Predict the structure.
Amino acid sequence: MRWSSNCRAKISSAMKLDGTLTQATIGGRFAMLAAEASKMAAPKEIDVSALSDFDSAGFACLTALKQIAGDARIVGASPRLRALASTYGATSLLG
C-alpha cells in the first residue's frame, strides 16, 4: 500500500484490557488519520509494516501522527521504507 499526499490511512488499534491504546497499525486506505489519532490515547507503537511506499507528504503525515502520539516508536519499517526515509531526510523518524 502506498501512503500518499492525502494524509489519510486506516488505523486499526490493539487495545489493552484497561482500554488504553498500545499500538496503532497503519494499513488499508482513506480513513481519517491525524484527527482520529488525536482522539485516542497515545499509542506506544505505530506499526508501518503494511506500507510498501511513501512519498514526502506521507512522511509529513507520519511525523504529525508521531507528534500526536508523543513518545511512540515507529516499528515494522521495511528496508525500502528506510531507504525512502533516507531520501527524504527522515531517517530519525523511523528510529
In short: Helices lie at 34-39, 56-69, 79-87.
